[in-house]
């Protein structure tokens, strides 16, 4: 049996899919092959928020699974919509890596050192809002493109292909903000000038995590359920699942779902287990950074149900504090 693993063709997607494929093959003892799937997010141009948000990277992969063109799909979990996909299951959430966002700036600058009016690029309304909250004097520029393309907008970063200034293409920004996890996976952490701690910038729900999705009939059965499979693929997927990561992302995604937050809503969320407690912190920001609602909760209910209830509880607290009044939570 050869297991076919669907992936986008970007450098980051291929890298994290190959790593996952190697792990599945090692655990399951079966050969694997990658199936390249082109998504709307790879083809369309313009702001991501105007194309349906991060879900544009997921739909084609899910369709390929349902058409039996691949057996497994690997996503960045933060790209996965919170709504269930009929016929598919989130079969595994491997151990999470660094959740933080990072600043990649010219001349080794940190966020506090950037001059007034410095041009900082990001395609994320969440990052843009929190940047404006921290530094209202910055000029936040909406950008698209893969990781190398974005880093190429900042002069002098290690690994850049050119030092030529071309507006909208290369060396025309003072800094960009990206996810530490993506840079780590493609070996470009040397471009980081500052790790932005969560008190400055809470990450996207699921950031730093991968989502391995498959058809429900091929997924490991959930506790107390007979639906699913006990074949070798399901066993390999179960072996890759990290329980603490699953609890954390379950809480984060439950919060998003209760807020009814679209892909472009400026919402940050971060959950983590510490000892016998699961902690969750979240922020909802006005897009211009002038107002924020931030709160946190914890639970000793270390089950998926407990994590879901934690996310709902914190979302209710944020809504009671006016989150829906300061942000367009349905933005997509």
TrEMBL record:
Residue span(s) of domain Porphobilinogen deaminase C-terminal: 247-319
Alphabetically ordered keywords of this record: Porphyrin biosynthesis, Transferase
Question: Its function?
Answer: Tetrapolymerization of the monopyrrole PBG into the hydroxymethylbilane pre-uroporphyrinogen in several discrete steps.
Question: How is the co-factor bound, per the entry?
Answer: Binds 1 dipyrromethane group covalently.
Where do the Porphobilinogen deaminase N-terminal domain residues begin and end? Answer: 3-219
Q: Which domain of life is it from?
A: Bacteria
What more is known? The porphobilinogen subunits are added to the dipyrromethane group.
- Name positions with the PTM S-(dipyrrolylmethanemethyl)cysteine: 263
Entry's Gene3D superfamilies?
Answer: Periplasmic binding protein-like II, Porphobilinogen deaminase, C-terminal domain
Spell out the Pfam families in the cross-references: Porphobil_deam, Porphobil_deamC
Query: Species lineage, top-down?
Result: Bacteria, Bacillati, Actinomycetota, Actinomycetes, Micrococcales
Question: Which SUPFAM superfamilies does the entry mention?
Answer: Periplasmic binding protein-like II, Porphobilinogen deaminase (hydroxymethylbilane synthase), C-terminal domain
Needed cofactors, names only, are:
dipyrromethane
Write down the species.
Pseudarthrobacter enclensis
Q: Could you tell me what reaction this enzyme catalyses?
A: 4 porphobilinogen + H2O = hydroxymethylbilane + 4 NH4(+)
Its EC number(s):
2.5.1.61
- GO MF annotations in UniProt: hydroxymethylbilane synthase activity
What protein name applies here?
Answer: Porphobilinogen deaminase
